Amino acid sequence: MTEAASPPIRRAMVLAAGLGQRMRPITDTLPKPLVRIGGKAMLDHALDRLAEAGVEEVVVNVHHLAGQIETHVAGRTSPRIVISDERAALLETGGGTKKALPLLGDGPFFSVNSDTLWSETDVSNLAAMARAWDPARMDMLLLLARRETSVGFTGAGDFVSDDAGRLIRRGQAASAPYIFAGVSVLTPAFFAGTPDGSFSLNLLFDRAIATGRLFGHVLEGQWLHIGAPHEIAPAEAALAAAQALDA
């Protein structure tokens, strides 16, 4: 019997409220999601990827220089944008997503860091994640980048995967092959029992690991780490090279 395909994921949360402190002095006057890479704001790179994958509505949270982000997305129709206002308090990735849950419906949704960027072949990685999502086995599905082929990343890596795609953290190992690439699929129900206020999505990563229900989907393409001003130029060069290959 052929297994039924997972339905498309139509909603997403884009995390755009952070202070972008490592990107100073640029982010003293410009929110990090609006920093341009290859002529396009990082936020638009994320929103365009979501639109290409069939996402119709995106909740964008705002805090630091919130008005600039609201103005920037005001004209977008694909996907439709809904603002989750965090001006009163910065809630981190988990708390910010939890605050936005009433806007995200009951089904699975993408959670996307607004500053995550990758080159892509003719495969939509987000659409592939939607097809791979299996709530019978998974509480969260993470987009993973290969540490050795990523641009600008100098860390030891985050996760180890088994043959089924189930993840555990690097722990005390010297290195791990995969980096969390800033995108996950999860459901509102998985936030049950989480704290009020500020907390990180790492809390949910660990909860899913504890039950063997954190899975990874490996990126087809190259992940571009952009944390500080000196990392912009290498990312732009890698993106331009990938686009030239696709032309």
TrEMBL record:
It comes from the Bacteria. This is MurNAc alpha-1-phosphate uridylyltransferase. GO terms for molecular function: nucleotidyltransferase activity. Residues 12-131 form the Nucleotidyl transferase domain. Pfam families: NTP_transferase. The keyword RNA-binding does not apply. Keywords: Nucleotidyltransferase, Transferase. The keyword Zinc does not apply. InterPro entries: GlmU-like (IPR050065), NTP_transferase_dom (IPR005835), Nucleotide-diphossugar_trans (IPR029044).
